[in-house]
Amino acid sequence: MIAKLFMAICRLSPYLRKVIWRRWYQFLTRSYKRKDWSFINYGYASLDPQTDKLQLDDADEQNRYCIQLYHHVVNVVDLRDLRVLEVGSGRGGGAYYIKRSLGPKRVVGVDFSRRAVAFCNKSYSSVEGLSFVAGDAEFLPFRDNSFDVVVNVESSHCYGSMNAFLMQVKRVLREGGYFLYTDFRDKGEVDILHKQLDHSGMTLIKETNITMNVIGAMNLDNERKMALIQAAVHKMLLRPFQEFAGVIGSMMYEGFRTGEVIYSSFVLQKPNHQ
Q: Has residue 66 been placed in a domain?
């Protein structure tokens, strides 16, 4: 029953879905303040054994697959000296990786959980050029043309209106700026997402189905996730956390494995003024 709840949330009305996810993430930040838990995504693993392994510091190895998802999404654009906004920055690990490793001038993370924002500003207060603010993805608190790149990783399924979010992304991007985006949808909703992207006013440059890469990461990262959940979570909440984390055998894992849920990444660009 609990397992089905997490899948059902994604199919609720936009308003209820947004309210429930907001409360869930507020609960996570209030209840679990471990600084070593800095990522919330399913991860990415290369399917090509010839691919060079992403070089990481020893301290980052525990989050390898989560970091590799960010790297897959953002590495298509040279971020050096650019202004980057991450919408749905969560516990801040992705924004921190981008700022520390890819050389942007400035990274701002925005999240609808004020507790998560406070957690990030405390955890990364010493990192120059990295900051976090509270805000709604559908009403971004930034001026027009403020950023060169907007990043969104595994967050948009929580939003009440994808169209409103895309309108905000286009607004805050400068002309020629990039929207680097990844998330999952039920198989029956993939065409809806394509139409939303087509009507966003941005140009779709690249789309990649990474479902198998995500499954690979889930398999390789399963032992670590299970150990973390066992160590940090009350036994009454083990099952919902396992579902949320997408461990092997969870409904989310099975959704990806059977093809009922599709995970894709996208590169879009805001056109230059004609």
A: yes
